[in-house]
UniProtKB/TrEMBL annotation:
UniProt name for this protein: Pseudouridine synthase
Keyword Ribosomal protein tagged: no
Compositionally biased tracts (Polar residues): 1-14
Region annotation Disordered: where it falls in the sequence: 1-20
Top-level taxon in the UniProt lineage: Bacteria
Xref: PANTHER family: PSEUDOURIDINE SYNTHASE FAMILY PROTEIN-RELATED (PTHR47683), RNA-BINDING S4 DOMAIN-CONTAINING PROTEIN (PTHR47683:SF2)
EC number per UniProt: 5.4.99.-
Family per record: Belongs to the pseudouridine synthase RsuA family.
Repressor as UniProt keyword: no
Main enzyme class: isomerase
Keywords annotated in UniProt: Isomerase, RNA-binding
All copies of domain RNA-binding S4, residue ranges: 22-80
Amino acid sequence: MTNDNQGIQGTPTNPEAAADGVRLQKVMASAGVASRRVSEEMIAAGRVRVNGKVVTELGRRIHPDSDLIMVDNVAVQLDTSRRYVMLNKPVGVVSSMQDESGRPDLREFTDQFEERLFNVGRLDAMTSGLLILTNDGDLAHVLAHPSFGVLKTYIAKVEGRVSAQTIQLLQSGIELDDGPISADKARILASPPGDGFSLVELTLHSGRNRIVRRMMEAVGHPVVDLVRRQFGPLHLGTLRVGDVRDLTKAELGQLLTVSRAETKI
């Protein structure tokens, strides 16, 4: 994995090697963790880790471009040039920065930012919901790559009345053209009597193309409407369709923590 930013990767350094670095409390203050004085209190209380090890000495120096910091076991982004944005993608927009067919694409939402942002993973054009936009390449690789298995939660409006047996089948596993698949979690949100529509919540770590639609089709309940509500630790919340917002510091910390855990740093 390339090390073009320190959202994920870093080269651990020891105190001696970091002697020409920057004082830890200054780095924390610059990253917006807390004031320098409060940062010193956090360090003295043993709440700060550098490259996985608790640091309590106030004179500790680090290299912000290579060392990894955690406060209260939550990762801190030291590179303030990185940006992380949540989009509630509308139906009809393709997950691309430039669609060759001229369909509405993500430039409508990224052009308002100075940074060159790109999407983390994809949602098909007819699926709405949570999509992350960032300029952090390493984090994007971890979150989007199927081998890391970041959990995603969807709410699907499907045809027909979904039974408890169908939910069990989705969780135990079904066979698709490209191999077996099972939901990590599945539950019925609404299943009215008759032949109307049901609401089903599915959580899975697979990144296979149109996987939720294909799973529900396979069990006899084609998807009518599909929304991604959660991506890793991030929740769509009350963000309106078509709106974007920066991640909060708490959300970013959770996202970086998950990313570092996935890469076993």
